[in-house]
C-alpha cells in the first residue's frame, strides 16, 4: 500500500511527533476570505460553474448563487423543512439539487431559477451526479441508485447495498465510455462502460470508518476519496486510485483531535487536490496526493464541501452559513481569530459524540459578551458550569471531562449543554442547547 503523508515541513520541529501532527497557532497568511452568505443555515454542497459563478445548497431549502466571485450571495430558492444534501451540474446551465424525502430542484439557466419537485417518497437522497449531459444519477440512504435520461421524468433503480450512497462521480474515459464510482461507506462500485456493469470492491477502512466524498481529476487519470476512520470517525483518510491501479491506495493520517473526519474533496487537476472536514480544516496536495499540507482555518466551524474552478480559485462551505473563498489556492494559509471574525453566535455540536471520558465543545462570539456554558442531566439538574465569564469576540474551545462541579465523575447517559450569552444590550440574548452522550 502506498503511504500518503502529511507534509510537515512548515511545522516547528518541536511540534512533530512520530505518527502525529500537533498544530500550533502559526503566523497568519490571509489566503482564505470569509464571505457573507446572509444565512445561518448549514451549507452541505457547492459547485463552481465558472471562475466567478457558484451555487451553494443546504438546510431550510436554501439555494444561494453568486455571479461575482462571492462578493454577493443571492438566495434563489428556499423552502422550510427541506434539506438539500447534494448538488450536481451537467454543464453551466443544467443542474439539480437533491435532498431529504426525495425532494428535487432543477435549474436550466445556471441556477438563476429553480423548479421544485416533490416525489412524495420518504427516502432521503444523499448523492447526485451527471454522467455526461443527459444521464442523471442519484443515490439514497438505503443504498439504492436511480438514473434518468429525461431530466427526472422517469427513473430506473438499482440496489447497491444497505448503507447510504455517499457519493457518485464520473469522468469521460476511453473508447467513448464513461468511467464512474458509486461510493458507500465501506464499498466502491466501479463502471468502465458507462454504467453497463458495476464491479464492487471493499474500501480500506475499518468497520468504524466511512468514505464520504470522491472525485476524478478532469483528465480521469486519478481519483480520490475522502473520509474518516477509527471509532467515532475520529481520524481523516484520503484514498487514491491512479489509472493503472486496480485497488484504492491510502493512509489513515491519525492526527490528534480536533482534526477528525473529512467531508469533501475537490480535484481540479492531476497534481492538485483539496479536502475539507471538521473543525475548519482544509488539506491540500500539489504532487498528485503523495504529500498533503494542512491549511488550518482558525475556528470551530465544520466544513462540509468544496469545489475548485482551477488549481487556485475555489469555494468551501460549511456549518452556520460558512463560505470561504480563495483565488490563491489557500497555500498554507492560516487565519487568526482577528482576521476571520465570526459573523454570528453559534454553539457547535461536541466532538466526539458519543464520548468517553472527555469531549470538546466549541462556540463563537461575533462581539464581546457575558458567556455562561452549563451541563445538565436529563432531569434538568445542573451538573457542571464550564464557562462563566466576560469574553471578547472570537472562537472558543473548552473541554468537559465528565465531572461535576465537585470534581466527581458522572455516570453514563444523555447530557445537555446550554450556552447562554448576554451581549451588547439587555435585550440581546443568545441561548442554544445541544445533546451529548457519555458512554463509559
Brief synopsis:
It contains no helices and 38 strands. It is mainly β and 440 residues long.
Name the descriptors:
440 residues; mainly beta; Methylamine Dehydrogenase, Chain H; five-stranded mixed sheet; four-stranded antiparallel sheet; disordered N terminus
Give the topology.
Layout: E1 5-6, E2 16-17, E3 20-21, E4 33-35, E5 43-48, E6 54-58, E7 63-66, E8 74-77, E9 84-89, E10 95-99, E11 103-107, E12 115-118, E13 125-131, E14 135-140, E15 144-148, E16 156-159, E17 167-172, E18 178-183, E19 187-191, E20 199-202, E21 210-216, E22 222-229, E23 235-242, E24 249-252, E25 262-266, E26 273-277, E27 281-285, E28 291-296, E29 303-308, E30 314-318, E31 323-326, E32 346-347, E33 359-365, E34 369-377, E35 382-391, E36 394-400, E37 413-422, E38 429-438
Major sheet size, sense and barrel closure: 5 strands, mixed
Instruction: Please name the CATH architecture of the largest domain.
Output: 7 Propeller
**Globular, elongated, flat, extended or rod-shaped: what is the shape?**
globular
Give the beta-strand count.
38
CATH topology of the largest domain: Methylamine Dehydrogenase, Chain H
Radius of gyration: 22 Å
Estimated helix fraction: under 10%
Provide a count of the helices.
0
What class do helices, strands and sheet pairing give? mainly beta
Return the domain count: 2
The CATH homologous superfamily of the largest domain is called YVTN repeat-like/Quinoprotein amine dehydrogenase
| Order of strands across the main sheet | 1-28-27-26-25
Amino acid at each position: 500500500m502506498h503511504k500518503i503523508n502529511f507534509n510537515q515541513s512548515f511545522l516547528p520541529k518541536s511540534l512533530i511527533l512520530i505518527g502525529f501532527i500537533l498544530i500550533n497557532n502559526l503566523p497568519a497568511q490571509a489566503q482564505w476570505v470569509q464571505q457573507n452568505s446572509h444565512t445561518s443555515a448549514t451549507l452541505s454542497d457547492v459547485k463552481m460553474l465558472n471562475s466567478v459563478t457558484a451555487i451553494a445548497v443546504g438546510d431550510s431549502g436554501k439555494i444561494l448563487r453568486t455571479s461575482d466571485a462571492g462578493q454577493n450571495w443571492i438566495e434563489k430558492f428556499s423552502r422550510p423543512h427541506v434539506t438539500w444534501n447534494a448538488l450536481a451540474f451537467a454543464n453551466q446551465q443544467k443542474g439539480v439539487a437533491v435532498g431529504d424525502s426525495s425532494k428535487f430542484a432543477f435549474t436550466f439557466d445556471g441556477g438563476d431559477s429553480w423548479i421544485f419537485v416533490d416525489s412524495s417518497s420518504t427516502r432521503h437522497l444523499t448523492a447526485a451526479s451527471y454522467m455526461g449531459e443527459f444521464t442523471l444519477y442519484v443515490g439514497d440512504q438505503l443504498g439504492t441508485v436511480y438514473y434518468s435520461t429525461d431530466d427526472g421524468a422517469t427513473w430506473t433503480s438499482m440496489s447497491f447495498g444497505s448503507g447510504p450512497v455517499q457519493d457518485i462521480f464520473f469522468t469521460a474515459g476511453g473508447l467513448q465510455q464513461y468511467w464512474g464510482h458509486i461510493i458507500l461507506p465501506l464499498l466502491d462500485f466501479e463502471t468502465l462502460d458507462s454504467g453497463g456493469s458495476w464491479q464492487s470492491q471493499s474500501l480500506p477502512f475499518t468497520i468504524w470508518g466511512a468514505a464520504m466524498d470522491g472525485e476524478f481529476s478532469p483528465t480521469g487519470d486519478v481519483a480520490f476519496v475522502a473520509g474518516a476512520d477509527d471509532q467515532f470517525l475520529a481520524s481523516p483518510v484520503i484514498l487514491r486510485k491512479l489509472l493503472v491501479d486496480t485497488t484504492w491506495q491510502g493512509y489513515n493520517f491519525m492526527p490528534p483531535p480536533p482534526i477528525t473526519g473529512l467531508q469533501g474533496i475537490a480535484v481540479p487537476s492531476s497534481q492538485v487536490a483539496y479536502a475539507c472536514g471538521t473543525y475548519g480544516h482544509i488539506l491540500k496536495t500539489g504532487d498528485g496526493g503523495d504529500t498533503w499540507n494542512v491549511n488550518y482555518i482558525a475556528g470551530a466551524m465544520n466544513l462540509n464541501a468544496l469545489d475548485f474552478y482551477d488549481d487556485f480559485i475555489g469555494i468551501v462551505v460549511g456549518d452556520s452559513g460558512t463560505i470561504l473563498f480563495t483565488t490563491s489556492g489557500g497555500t498554507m494559509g492560516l487565519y487568526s481569530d482577528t482576521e476571520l471574525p465570526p459573523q454570528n453566535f453559534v454553539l457547535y455540536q461536541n466532538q466526539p459524540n458519543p464520548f468517553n471520558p472527555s469531549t470538546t465543545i466549541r462556540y463563537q462570539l461575533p462581539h464581546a459578551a457575558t458567556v455562561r456554558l452549563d451541563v445538565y442531566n436529563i432531569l434538568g439538574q445542573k451538573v457542571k458550569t464550564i464557562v462563566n465569564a466576560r469574553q471578547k469576540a472570537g472562537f472558543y474551545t473548552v473541554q468537559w471531562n465528565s465531572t461535576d462541579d465537585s470534581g466527581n465523575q458522572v455516570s453514563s447517559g444523555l447530557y445537555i449543554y446550554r450556552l447562554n450569552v448576554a451581549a451588547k444590550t439587555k435585550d440581546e440574548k443568545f441561548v442554544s442547547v445541544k445533546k451529548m452522550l457519555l458512554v463509559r
